[in-house]
């Protein structure tokens, strides 16, 4: 799509949004740390709701080459190990996408939205415009004012932000800070129900919602001898893009991806 738009004369930037903040990232960090302990012959327990994939064992081995167990007394060691695991994982994603002929111009960190204050900026705008209410100790965006079926939490009663809050801040950054005229998001089909609230949030912070186009894509199913493989990054049930390319080749992968509409199952 981006190549077609470039050919048509658009100035296009391709961006990958890295979810490196929030509760899921904490679980990832704890999982990497547990594998790092195991590699160093120590007891390490991956959280029950963490990431149990064996791919993190290889990640932990790589980390151990530069960070030995003698550094386990280091302050914030879980963060240190987790950040190394994140860097390695992102590089793997970049390499595998490059094998498929896909490169992004920018890799945008969700965590940066906290660091640069834009998360607080959008909360202030929503509050000023009267689109935030407090219920049960949490802050809610009044999505029902914008044709959504229910209001949505942006700050939990614990004081932590929801992914929806940082998603709003991310789009504020794209439209207001970097002044993109048109934004096209690619979302998984499981987020179909989030489109109305995001469009409503754009309108609430002064952005034309028609300038945000959201394309939802179905998940890819993998079969082994007619048996469907249920994929899960947490339960170590996955087929990586690299494995798929090694098995059928880059061109076959690209062909099958483009012969299906985004809404179609593959």
Automatic annotation (TrEMBL):
A Pfam family reported for this protein in Swiss-Prot or TrEMBL: tRNA-synt_1d
Organism name: marine metagenome
Biological process (GO), any one: arginyl-tRNA aminoacylation
Domain Arginyl-tRNA synthetase catalytic core: 2-247
Matches recorded under Gene3D superfamilies: HUPs
GO-annotated molecular function: arginine-tRNA ligase activity; ATP binding
InterPro entries from the UniProt entry: Arg-tRNA-ligase, ArgRS_core, Rossmann-like_a/b/a_fold
Name of the protein in its database record: Arginyl-tRNA synthetase catalytic core domain-containing protein
């Amino acid at each position: 799509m981006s190549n077609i738009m470039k050919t048509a004369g658009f100035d296009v930037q391709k961006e990958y949004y890295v979810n490196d903040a929030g509760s899921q990232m904490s679980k990832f960090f704890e999982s990497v740390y547990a594998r790092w302990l195991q590699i160093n012959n120590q007891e390490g327990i991956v959280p029950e709701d963490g990431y149990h994939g064996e791919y993190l064992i290889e990640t932990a081995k790589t980390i151990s080459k530069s960070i030995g167990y003698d550094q386990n007394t280091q302050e914030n060691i879980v963060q240190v190990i987790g950040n190394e695991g994140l860097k390695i994982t992102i590089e793997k994603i970049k390499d595998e996408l490059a094998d498929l002929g896909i490169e992004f111009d920018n890799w945008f960190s969700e965590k940066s939205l906290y660091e640069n204050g834009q998360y607080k900026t959008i909360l202030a705008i929503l509050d000023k415009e009267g689109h935030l209410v407090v219920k049960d100790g949490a802050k809610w965006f009044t999505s029902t004012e914008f044709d959504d079926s229910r209001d949505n939490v942006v700050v939990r009663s614990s004081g932590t932000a929801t992914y929806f809050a940082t998603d709003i801040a991310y789009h504020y950054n794209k439209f207001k800070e970097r002044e993109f005229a048109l934004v096209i998001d690619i979302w998984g089909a499981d987020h179909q129900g989030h489109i109305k609230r995001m469009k409503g949030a754009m309108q609430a912070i002064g952005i034309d919602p028609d300038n945000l186009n959201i394309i939802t894509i179905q998940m890819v199913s993998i079969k082994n001898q007619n048996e469907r493989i249920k994929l899960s990054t947490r339960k170590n049930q996955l087929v990586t893009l690299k494995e798929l390319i090694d098995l059928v080749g880059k061109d076959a992968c690209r062909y099958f991806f483009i012969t299906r509409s985004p809404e179609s199952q593959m």
